[in-house]
Amino acid sequence: MIQASLGQIKKSVGMLHLDEDNFITDIIQRIPPTPPNYLVIAEKNLEGNFKDINPVDLEAGPNRCAVS
How far apart are CA 60 and CA 7, in angstroms? Predict the structure, then answer.
């Protein structure tokens, strides 16, 4: 099991020592660029219609959804 106390986390995660504005700025800077197919994927998800395209092709490429 991997575990740590809140005290240990607060000591080891530098971002937790930032004030709110700097914390927000730091997080925003870590957000990766929008994936190239984002708008098409969003449109297809809203429509629920993938007849004209293979969803696997839309999702191909690096997974850039998470903040690093």
Answer: 40
